[in-house]
Write a structure and sequence with these properties.
This protein is an alpha/beta fold. The protein has 13 helices and twelve strands. The strands form three sheets. A seven-stranded mixed sheet has the order 2-8-7-6-5-3-4, with helices on both faces. The chain has a three-stranded antiparallel sheet with strand order 9-12-11. It has a two-stranded parallel sheet with strand order 1-10.
Length: 402
């Protein structure tokens, strides 16, 4: 009885959990940790959304089982969102399903469409569920780059030419978590053509659709004519409306994939709590000024973080989208590795970040910084980092205090 379970053998230790445990222990000991590790929004949802939750929760009829695929009004609200935002027509009955966050949706779809031994192409580095949802389902992962340059396309071609069995699924996620890289519509046009030619399903994770900067809205793969023949896309209310703990997301697109996801989910769950789904309708159908406000707030935080950390001696590229920065380790500390650097930063600078290696081996040499603290705290984090770098013998630029 001591033998480890089959699927547990396929899951490595969750590297990020090691840093999370250190952070929790430090806070339990009374230390003030500036937590830039988890992408957990610090902003509240809109008032009218909370009001709708409370209103519906008062109804005696609202507390029974809900619908696994999502209540009709919420599926219609999501279809209307795609129409407004992307000019994409969706049938709420056959092309939309509500999920308990995009993470659950991806994992459930992996269960629905993956057979043991199937080969899935997943970006490295990427959000862990992009790989491990399929590993849990019994698939084999072949990594492709996250950076969408010509090397990416060459990697896809090599994977199709030399992998047995041929890959049947490709996961993409832009804006990327963790790298914050973005793509344009031309990328998706090329990707849809490639997927049709190679008979590969495309699963697009668009969780950060509304956190874009510098006036460059993120596109959807479904804007490409014919994309629904091969693609399904996941979105979430977690970041757009600061509703992370509510666990509401969506899968939309190809009818065959949506039908498979609905069928598996009908065995696994009864859907999200009905008042939460009703409040999600209010978020999608109501005033959208909160979306712009949140975008502007994260934009300001990005600029403050890049400027303050740069003056502290740590140059961080400004992300084009998402709530994350993908930061290379300071050159003098690169040999330390991302996990040890994250531990050192937590211990000596009281700043928590996520080690890049936790997102795949190609994430080594980087850490992910979440912009989930206010500007004052970001500046304090930079001052702490500056003192840490000085203690390591790294001279910081003489441009004034961070």
């Amino acid at each position: 009885m001591s033998e480890e379970f089959y699927r547990m053998k396929r899951l490595p230790p969750y590297v990020i959990a090691e840093v999370n445990a250190m952070r929790a222990a430090a806070r339990a000991g009374g230390e003030d940790i500036i937590d830039l590790g988890m992408g957990n929004p610090d902003l509240p949802p809109p008032d009218h959304v909370i009001a709708k939750l409370c209103e519906v929760a008062q109804k005696p009829s609202a507390h029974g089982y809900s619908q696994s695929m999502g209540i009709p009004g919420l599926r219609r609200a999501q279809a209307n969102y795609y129409g407004r935002r992307f000019g994409v027509d969706l049938d709420p009955e056959t092309e939309v399903v509500v999920t308990m966050g995009s993470k659950e949706g991806l994992a459930s779809l992996a269960t629905a469409i993956t057979a043991p031994g199937d080969v899935v192409l997943a970006p490295n580095p990427s959000y862990p569920i992009h790989m491990f949802g399929f590993i849990i389902a019994g698939a084999t992962i072949r990594s492709v780059p996250t950076t969408p340059d010509e090397h990416y396309w060459q990697s896809l071609e090599r994977a199709m030419a030399f992998t047995v069995p041929r890959p049947s699924i490709l996961v993409v996620g832009y804006p990327s978590n963790p790298t914050a890289e973005t793509v344009d519509l031309a990328f998706y046009e090329r990707l849809v053509a490639w997927a049709k030619e190679n008979k590969v399903w495309v699963l697009s994770d668009l969780a950060y659709s509304e956190l874009y900067y510098d006036g460059n809205p993120t596109p959807s793969i479904l804007q490409v004519p014919g994309a629904k023949d091969v693609a399904v896309e996941f979105t979430s209310l977690s970041k757009t409306y600061s509703m992370a703990g509510w666990r509401i997301g969506f899968a939309v697109g190809n009818r065959q994939l949506i039908a498979a996801l609905k069928r598996v989910k009908s065995y696994l769950d009864y859907g999200a709590f009905t008042p939460i789904q009703a409040a999600a309708c209010a978020a999608l159908n109501g005033p959208q000024d909160i979306v712009q406000k949140n975008r502007e707030l994260y934009h300001k935080r990005r600029d403050v973080m890049v400027e303050a950390f740069g003056r502290a001696g740590w140059d961080i590229p400004a992300p084009k989208a998402s709530m994350f920065a993908w930061a290379p380790l300071p050159p003098a500390l690169k040999d330390m590795g991302s996990l040890e650097f994250s531990k050192q930063l937590l211990t000596h600078a009281k700043v928590a970040v996520a080690p890049g290696v936790g997102y795949g081996e190609d994430g080594e040499g980087y850490v992910r910084i979440a912009m989930v603290e206010n500007e004052q705290r970001l500046r304090q984090a930079a001052r702490n980092v500056k003192q840490y770098l000085k203690s390591m013998g790294i001279n910081t630029p003489a441009k004034g205090a961070a």
